[in-house]
Amino acid sequence: xxxxxxxxxxxxxxxxxxxxxxxxxxxxxxxxxxxxxxxxxxxxxxxxxxxxxxxxxxxxxxxxxxxxxxxxxxxxxxxxxxxxxxxxxxxxxxxxxxxxxxxxxxxxxxxxxxxxxxxxxxxxxxxxxxxxxxxxxxxxxxxxxxxxxxxxxxxxxxxxx
Length: 161
Ligand code: PNS
Hints:
By secondary structure, the protein is α/β, with parallel strands linked by helices. Helices cover 42% and strands 18% of the residues.
């Protein structure tokens, strides 16, 4: 039987506990999950792509064996086809996420009709969480414990020390 692969794409700048929650949930549904970091030359990131990749790898617990961390450039739909993915996974926190996500999912379906987008809900406790807010809080010395995995917390504390 063919392995079912899902792509979980994002900027992950940085990985939050909400992202990790979606990675864990999707790793229980799929044989193989690829957390794929977008290489976006237009953005001014806090962490380099390599740092983000290392932080995701360091944050995955030993129980998550079927998750790979990769990077991609260009269109997500092309990357998902190249990686023979059956699905693209996106986390939806609130209704406000839905409009943008719907637009992206339908456009990706137009580009690659064979690949489904699955929307997953993170644990309710993470429904207010975003990388942008975490960056802002860390920059101003606020408490980020519990919002991000420990390796990310340490990296943020070092970055803004
Ligand atoms: O974590 P983010 O920033 O919400 O992730 C957005 C991401 C990376 C999923 C999205 O920007 C993306 O897929 N970019 C790749 C370029 C692309 O395919 N654009 C057309 C989308 S329909």
